[in-house]
Amino acid sequence: MEVNAFTVAAFIIYALIILAIGIYSYKKSKSMSDYFIGGRSLGPWTTAISAQASDMSGWLLMGLPGAILVGGLTESWIAIGLFLGTYLNWKLIASRLRRMSYAAGDAITIPEYLQKRFFTESPVVRLVCAAIIFVFFLVYTASAFSAGAKLFNFVFGTDYTLSLTIGALIIISYTFLGGFFAVCWTDLIQGILMFVALVIVPFAALAAVPNISAVEFPVADINGIIVEYYTSFIQNSNGSFAWQTIVSGLAWGLGYFGMPHILVRFMAIKSSDMIKKSRLIATIWVAITLVAAVLVGIVGYIYLNSPENAELLASFNALGDSEKIFMFLSSSLLPALFAGVILSAILAAIMSTADSQLLVTASAVTNDMFKIFKKNASDKALMWVSRLTVVGISIIAYLIALDPNSSVMGLVSYAWAGLGAAFGPAMLLSLFWKRMTIWGAVAGAAVGGISVVVWEMVPFFGYKALENGASAALTLSTETGIYSLLPAFALALVAVVAVSLITKVDKAKVEELFKKVESTTVDSIAAKAE
């Protein structure tokens, strides 16, 4: 794609605004609580939009539309699962976690919350949880870096490695400086930009197709493969019932219960009384953006396959990457300056997740690893350890993302499954089940994380030779067609319950904690203290 001066200008202005917020927020981050949860001072709009923007990432504008473009409407079950998961997370977890995390010793990270929730001095649960966060967020952050590289490569024509470097440096800079304040305020801006972009692009594409009825189904996808039953919600390409796709798509919703970068927003809101308003804002934002992302894939299919767009289809096929459909439509249909602003939405989506992941991982390393062994470290020293951790993690994620063939969708699905299975059952039961114990939490986290790795990575069925001479592992995931999050979540849930029932619980302390959480004064006490 030829570089346009207006597009470049839009990107530069956007990046400067984000960096300015980071510099401003640097002055406000004076303590660990400020740097990691914003001093529990977020309002309902910032909490809602930043939580959802940090969740969706470049996956919403690249991974999901690309999957729909290639696979058809059956892939939209992922969007349905995510919508249900979003609502249930806000409904079941948000208010309860805000109150519980404060009542249980004012915890500021998920691992610290679990330790304090079970009244133990043992660092085992924090170390196990921090290790899981570190491993899977590395993959998650790598997915964001990969998406950023594809964006800069498409817009500026720079090679993949240089594109990856530019995107990573921008994200690292403002996360390093501003911490949670910078992340949440930039996520608010980015969430609004993502919303506008996703609504505009599919309608612009539809308006550009003079005769939709002339598009014939099925047609060949970008790989030249005929996709039968493209417009069916429930059928595979061979006409069979797509139960694996449906079940796996809905299972994505389970991941929300265990996403540290989303859960920490619930802990940071000023009062649990604001949760209801935030839930409404978040649910509407998610519903509209998910529908719009599905439309980008479907309308992109219609637009590219309309008879008058044969040359455009050839140009898109030359890119060899279905995840670039949103970029392609934006640059093809919109004026240069406006296209630059819309394409900045992809950068916004990438940033809004990568910054949150870096911050959560840094908090796990600093607060749940380093601080355990350096108990007397000052807040200032811990904040600098956190900032250096952001840099270190970014370097490793950068190395993971160096493969130009990395799939944003593939990396996100793996990390989402690992975090959701490891923390989802433990978080749910810790908030509502008084009989749960610390060892149940440890067992659930370990079983959930390990199960995802085994399901996705272990070649139980050998290897399959590929056309390029390489080989692919035949795993439980590839052979069953079931998303690893579903079986791993179930196994982790069983582990939490089974181990809790055979280990001891301090009933008196648990009863006292639950009474505090159910007290109407817990938020007012928190507000006075803060």
What does this structure look like?
This protein has 530 residues and is an all-alpha fold. The chain has 20 helices and 2 strands. It is 73% helix and 1% strand. It has a two-stranded antiparallel sheet with strand order 1-2. Helix 3 (44-71) crosses helix 6, helix 3 (44-71) packs parallel to helix 10 (275-305) and helix 6 (124-156) crosses helix 7 (160-207). The protein is globular, with a radius of gyration of 23 Å.
- Figure out the total of helices: 20
CA radius of gyration is: 23 Å
Anisotropy-based shape: globular
Structural class: mainly alpha
Spatial strand arrangement across the major sheet? 1-2
Low-confidence residue ranges: 524-530
Distance between the termini: 51 Å
Give the total of beta strands. 2
Q: Kindly state the mean pLDDT as a whole number?
A: 82
Question: Biggest sheet, open or closed, and with what strands and sense?
Answer: 2 strands, antiparallel
Report the β-strand fraction as a percent range. under 5%
Proportion of residues in helical segments: over 70%
Characteristics:
globular, 20 helices, 530 residues, two-stranded antiparallel sheet, mainly alpha, 1% strand, 2 strands, disordered C terminus
Summed up, what is this model?
With 530 residues, the protein is mostly helical.
Topology of this structure?
Blueprint: H1 5-28, H2 32-37, H3 44-71, H4 77-103, H5 110-117, H6 124-156, H7 160-207, H8 243-251, H9 260-268, H10 275-305, H11 310-319, H12 325-333, H13 336-373, H14 379-400, H15 408-432, H16 438-457, E1 463-465, E2 471-473, H17 476-480, H18 485-501, H19 507-518, H20 522-529
Antiparallel strand pairs: 1-2
